Amino acid sequence: MTAPMSVPRIVDHPDRPYVGVLRTITMTTFGEVADRIPELIAWLGRHGVALAGAPFLRYRAIDMAADRLEVEAGVPIARSLEEPVEEEGAGFFAAALPAGRYATLTHHGHPDRLAGVIGDLLAWGEKEGLTWDLAERDGVERWGCRLELYETDPRVEPDPANWDTTLEFRLA
Question: Which candidate, 54, 47, 55, 42, places its Cα nearest to that of 84?
């Protein structure tokens, strides 16, 4: 049984600018990308760029058989950047999450329960006849936009059992 969550719904989003960093990781090396979020936020602060929402992980490619994932850590920003993102060796870039319709729900509880919540969202989408912005080839899922938004600041609420995570999966 998964932790309490909201009821899935569909929302429309415009393009959403962000600054991010991309890494190829495994299920045991998530920290290589997730731990970059504070660096991104610090960079934005140093450059006077306003945040515009919760930091996120964006899953671009998932190959569970090979334990290989292409994942971005990102922070939404209030406006697109005119200047290039430069930080010595950081690999930061500016981009935009694509506009479109997204299936979404919010999970309240420890992030280690997200796998079950993701399964619930995917099952709901199948029951509703939804088509994901997803291409599968040779066992690799390539997502147009699959997000986990981390709504809770761990500096304010250190107990992961009280964190809120919003899932947003773009529809085709």
Answer: 47
Which tokens sit at 27? Answer: 């299920």
Residue 138, Ramachandran bin (φ over 0: left; ψ between -120 and 50: alpha; else beta): left
The answer, yes or no, to whether residue 3 has pLDDT greater than 80, is no
Whole-number percent of the chain with pLDDT over 70 = 94
Do residues 108 and 56 make contact, with C-beta atoms less than 8 angstroms apart? no
CATH fold of the domain at 9-170: Multidrug-efflux Transporter 1 Regulator Bmrr; Chain A (3.20.80)
Which tokens is 42 given? 């610090």
Collapse the DSSP code of 27 into the 3-class scheme (helix H, G, I; strand E, B; otherwise coil) and give the result.
coil
For the beta carbon of residue 69, count every other beta carbon within 10 angstroms.
Answer: 22
Predicted model pTM: 0.92
- Give me the residues paired with residue 9 across strands: 104
User: Which pLDDT does position 2 carry in this prediction?
Assistant: 45
Residue 72 DSSP label: E
Domain residue spans in the chain?
A: 9-170
Cα 134 to Cα 136: distance, rounded to the nearest angstrom: 7
Element (H, E) at 80: none
